[in-house]
Every structure is written in structure tokens, then in C-alpha cells.
User: What shape does this take?
Amino acid sequence: MSISLTLGDITRVHADAIVNAANPHLAPGGGVCGAIHAAGGPQVAAECRAWVEAHGPVPPGGAAITGAGRLPARRVIHAVGPVWHGGGDHEAEILASAYRSAIALAEAEGLTSVAFPSISTGIYGYPVAAAAPVALRAVHEALAGTEHVRDVTFVLFDEPTRAAYERALAELGRSRP
Ligand code: AR6
Assistant: This one.
């Protein structure tokens, strides 16, 4: 199993699943969500609407899975992170849960490779230096219990975000030899 980091645009990634930093109503929004819907086409939004009609909104920390429309990935997992309220509102727990929920859905579908963006660190305002160690630890722990999901890539959109994840990954390596 492996966790890797790369700088890039997640809509171009050929993974079994890419993860969307979604909102509870799975509505096409801005940020990576807007980019995924723009590249995936209307089929992704239609499947999102159907999912919410059938199951209700996705709570923060939860995730839903749809097809990927015109994206090169096979599926999209829509994970809802927390809105940052200063750190005292269970943001870290909710963020970790969003990553775990996404990996659990990928595992249930028998998928091997999953690509994540940096959930919550854009429009939702979570400071990336605080989010990166939570994200990496949650994924590392989840991968210890998966049979199918083996390869996780964080596809990071800008250099400061990549650098924050690089530091957090080095730290995780030091704490878990
Ligand atoms: N590929 C990879 N990462 C990207 C891309 C891309 N194409 N585009 C942006 N990012 P955000 P959030 C990065 O705001 O904070 C939406 O409206 C971005 O630079 O997309 O979880 C949803 O519908 C940042 O590092 O997600 C929700 O309402 C990271 O992705 C809300 O925003 C996450 O930023 C979710 O906010």
C-alpha cells in the first residue's frame, strides 16, 4: 500500500476513483467541486441529485459515490469535509471521518486506486498546515484495514499545499517508523 503526493489537477487523473470536496447537497459548487462537475459533465450532477433524493444530504464527515461522466477516472466519491470554525468545533474529527468514509466506499466497491484533493482547505477555510497531518493520518490508518484500496494519491493544486502535505508526510514517517 502506498500514499503519494503530486501537484496537479485531479480532473485529469486516471484513478479508479477521484474524491470530490463536496457540499452536503452534492451541488456543483466552486473549487475542485466545480472543476469536477465541469469536466465530468451533467451526468455527474444528475447522479448526485438522484443520490440526495434517495438518501438525503451527506452529513459533514460522510461520503457518497457516483459515476464519473466524462472524467478519466471510473468513479467519483463525494466527501464532505468540515467548514473551519476556528478548530474547536470537531473539525479534525469530521475531516478524518470524511477521508475514512471515502476509503470505506472505495473498499466496498472493490476499487484499488483513489486520488484525493485537500478536502476543506479551500472555500471551507481549514488551514492546510493543520489539515494535512489529519488527512494523512486518517488515510494511513484506514489503509491498514483495506483489502482492495492500495494506492492513495493526494493531488494538490498549488505548491504551498503540496509543501504542507510533504512536511506532514515526513512527520508521519518519523512518528511511525
Ligand atoms: N484539482 C485538485 N485540487 C483542486 C482543484 C483541482 N482541479 N481545484 C481546486 N483544488 P475547495 P473545500 C484545491 O474549495 O474547502 C465547493 O463549492 C484547492 O486549491 O475545492 O472542501 C464545494 O461544493 C484546495 O487546496 O474545497 C463545497 O461547497 C482544495 O482543492 C466547498 O467548495 C479544496 O478546496 C468545499 O470547500
The chain has five helices and six strands.
